[in-house]
């Protein structure tokens, strides 16, 4: 049996200036490591093929680092492996995940960040010009899962109440977006691992979705002709994605 631990959400606090901090400016920081006693996994070359090469986050949001460029790790961080599975909590969905350099899955819920802001009227996110609804708060994400350190493919875990399943996607601007080394096959490999090393809190595993907006332009053009193509907003044909098969029993 896997034991669960409950945390309280961190309080929001004020922070200086709205800007994006280049990831290259940050000094080395301690990222997730393999737990002591864990059996060795695939060799580094195999991991590169399965999940892509480790890269630094493409950028850091204004609240994700301090004035010295240090990136705090989310207090909710779990590093999931076959030896040490992670426990998802339906009440904390959605989650962000990243495959770390050692081939484990770093996963955090999108809980409020102590250096972030709340947006009672909503706002347009500067890095991708996407609109976020009123009540949005700045939250821990992929950078907080890795402490700003290099990671492989990453994405989101969304709980869908209608089907009582977790959907897995490649939605990570920090580690996946427009990186040619982040393919649908690598998302399938990551999804298989996630399904093996996480307790889904009584829910099932649902779609594995490769979001075209997070692939390269060439791959996007190719997948737009795929018969599996669907849209998050069918009326506007927005949020295109293809549903992938993992070969894992759902």
Structural class based on helices, strands and sheet pairing: alpha+beta
Oligomer, anyone? single chain
- Strands, total number: 14
Residue share in helix: 10-25%
Portion of residues in beta strands equals 15-25%
Overall tally of domains: 1
Please tell me how large the radius of gyration is. Answer: 17 Å
The biggest beta sheet reads: 8 strands, mixed
H and E string: HEEEEEEEEHEEHEEHEE
Amino-to-carboxy terminus distance: 20 Å
Strand order within the widest beta sheet: 1-4-3-9-10-12-14-13
Q: Give the averaged pLDDT, no decimals.
A: 85
Q: Can you characterise this structure?
A:
The chain is α+β, with helices and mostly antiparallel strands. It has one domain (23-27, 42-244). Helix content is 14%, strand content 23%. It contains 4 helices and 14 strands. The protein has helices at 44-51, 142-146, 184-197, 217-223; strands at 78-80, 86-87, 95-99, 105-109, 118-119, 123-124, 131-132, 136-137, 154-160, 165-169, 198-199, 204-211, 229-233, 238-244. Strands 1-4-3-9-10-12-14-13 form an 8-stranded mixed beta sheet. Strands 2-11 form a two-stranded parallel ribbon. Strand 13 (229-233) and strand 14 (238-244) form a beta hairpin. The radius of gyration is 17 Å and the shape is globular. Mean pLDDT is 85; it is low at 1-39.
Strands, helices and their partners?
Layout: H1 44-51, E1 78-80, E2 86-87, E3 95-99, E4 105-109, E5 118-119, E6 123-124, E7 131-132, E8 136-137, H2 142-146, E9 154-160, E10 165-169, H3 184-197, E11 198-199, E12 204-211, H4 217-223, E13 229-233, E14 238-244
Parallel strand pairs: 2-11, 10-12
Antiparallel strand pairs: 1-4, 3-4, 3-9, 5-8, 6-7, 9-10, 12-14, 13-14
């Amino acid at each position: 049996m896997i034991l669960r631990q409950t945390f309280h959400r961190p309080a929001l606090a004020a922070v200086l200036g709205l800007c994006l901090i280049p990831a290259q400016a940050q000094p080395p920081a301690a990222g997730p490591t393999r737990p002591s006693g864990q059996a060795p996994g695939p060799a580094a070359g195999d991991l590169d093929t399965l999940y892509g090469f480790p890269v630094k986050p493409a950028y850091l949001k204004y609240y994700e680092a301090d004035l010295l460029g240090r990136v705090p790790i989310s207090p909710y961080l779990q590093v999931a492996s076959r030896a040490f599975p992670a426990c998802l909590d339906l009440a904390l969905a959605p989650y962000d995940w990243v495959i770390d350099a050692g081939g484990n899955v770093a996963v955090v819920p999108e809980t409020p960040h102590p250096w972030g802001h709340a947006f009672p009227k909503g706002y347009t996110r500067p890095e991708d010009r996407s609109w976020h609804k009123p009540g949005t708060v700045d939250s821990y994400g992929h950078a907080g899962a890795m402490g700003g350190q290099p990671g492989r493919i990453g994405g989101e875990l969304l709980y869908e109440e209608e089907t009582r399943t977790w959907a897995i996607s490649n939605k990570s601007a920090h580690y996946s977006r427009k990186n040619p080394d982040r393919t649908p096959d690598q998302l399938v490999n990551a999804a298989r691992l996630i399904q093996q090393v996480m307790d889904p809190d009584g829910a099932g595993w649902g779609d594995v979705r490769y979001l075209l907006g997070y692939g390269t332009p060439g791959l996007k053009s190719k997948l737009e002709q795929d018969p599996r193509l669907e849209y998050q907003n069918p009326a506007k044909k927005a949020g295109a994605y293809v549903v992938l098969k993992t070969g894992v029993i759902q």
